[in-house]
Amino acid sequence: MTTHHSGAHARADIGDDTAQSSSKRRTIASFDNYEDAERAVDHLSDNKFPVGRTAIVGVDIRVVEQVVGRMNWGRALLNGAAAGAVPGLFFGWIFGLFDLINPLVAAFTLALYGLVFGAVVGAVIGAVSYALHRGRRDFSSVTMMVPSRYDLVVDEEFADDAVRLLGTLPRAEGVE
Predict the structure, then answer these.
(1) What is the H or E stretch that residue 2 is in?
(2) Model pTM?
């Protein structure tokens, strides 16, 4: 669903030296999902519109914590080991590259040692962390921010052109 607005928004200064800080922005369309907003900006870009003067703004953000599983000792150890193994592998490999005589062999050897050491340290930290929670949080989750809609905002001096170009945007398949 797309709705058109005429309200003006203050331009967020995002480090563009060519943009005037006093420039206002207008919401020209709202979309229920990000893909439709992205499609609209892509259409503007295809028609040589200065897309550097646009922004997709997530509105009415809410934080959603998706529970992905039950936390137990095994998962706490496994998650900690995985979290420690990756940086251990990386640092071991980097330090191995500094061996002047045989850097390739040293890099692989130290990477392997770093992986093992990082996994052990990570598992210990995961276990200590789980023990300190004492059953208060026996689940694992992923936190994300989810907007209720996406507004397409354009600098005021380019808004009318953007509205005109969006009027030529073909409807997406499956949209009534």
Answers:
(1) strand 2-3
(2) 0.56
